[in-house]
Amino acid sequence: MSDISSAQTPSSTTAQPAAGASLRPDRSRQFLVTLFGVYPIITLILYLVLPLTAGWPIWQTTLIVTPLMVAIMVFWMIPQIQKRFAGFIMRPVRR
Prior knowledge:
Shape: elongated
Number of strands: 2
Number of helices: 3
Radius of gyration: 18 Å
Structural class: mainly alpha
Largest sheet: 2 strands, antiparallel
């Protein structure tokens, strides 16, 4: 099993746990950072797609929007969040 502490980047400047301490993501902080990233991206996608799909049933528009959003999340946004906000998201495991 890989150690989650390897996700900590050298550029993180927040308080560091003691050497050897395990880290885990704080889900509420991860939620907030992801929400602030998802909202503008989904809004932009909708602005671009809705004029092209005017009059379509909602399920067809969603069929176009969903793969775009998931691809952006998986290949760009989540890696950027993990890299840039690791010090904010990752917290020491309480024992």
